[in-house]
Amino acid sequence: MSPQNLPDHRTQPDSPDLLAEQAQAWIAWLASGAVEPERMQAFEQWLKQPGHRRAFEYERQLWQAVAQPPVRAHRAPRRRAPRIALAAAAVLALLWVSPDAWLRLRADHRSGSEVVTLALPDGSRAVLDADSAIAVDYDDSERGIRLLRGRAWFEVAPGHAQPFRVRAQGGVVEDIATAFAVADTGHGVDAEVSQGQIRVAATPESGWTYLLAGQRAGFARGGQVLRQADLAPDRIAAWREGELLLDAVPVGAAVDQIARYRAGPTFVRGDLSALSPVNAALRVDQPEQALDALAMSAGLRVTRLPLGVAIVSREAAH
């Protein structure tokens, strides 16, 4: 079955087997790379129907468990292997062809080149930095957030029995009446407290590390939580107020941070590692001026091309 001929899910409930086939069809379509906006809207409407997101998540997770596929009593064993193979192949193809589409499937909220403020179902507030994404997993046992990309700041609504937890790279950051920021750096996860208290664990089996306002910690996947230098609470997640504070940041990393706020792509030509780290306070709501200011202070040249492309390189030696 292909997404073109899926039935009208609003008029009749679907059986688990049919839902599984529909989810597989959507995965296969997404893996094809032909992800048109109109079809993506149709897919998002399909996801909103009762039971559909759960079915899609199950099929999506099958590829992660190919070595030890889960057993479902109502499914015949002879059907599991083809389904697992299809799900694994389709999802891996999707990751190769269109990683951004794959992120879109998993995320409930995303940001582009601007900072986005969100109201969560329990009255908490989330602020997503540019190029960030989260999934919201609230249920009767917890108010769960998955940080899928980038960084986010949370102001947690009190008075709920369920704990508020943010998961990233296998670890968890749990609120203890607070406001805090969590960042997925690609190499690990950083947690910072702007008020109140949180606790952090790198793995479900590891112990908790408690942090107060102004304190920070980080961990790599499967590693251990390590304390970082404290910051003044008003400097934590300064990007929420449109500020990018760079303290002894390598030039290449500074370019990457500014690039997330630009509407067009940013490319680096050559090696910037020999340049001295930079200290600067820049405005992320004015990314072009921020890039030019960084270039002037760090000895860079910015070449701008059509479609918003910017090429950053070292200034030629005189």
UniProtKB/TrEMBL annotation:
Residues 21-58 form the FecR N-terminal domain. Residues 112-198 form the FecR protein domain. InterPro entries: FecR (IPR006860), FecR_N (IPR032623), Ferrdict_sens_TM (IPR012373). Gene3D superfamilies: 2.60.120.1440. This is FecR domain-containing protein. It comes from Stenotrophomonas aracearum.
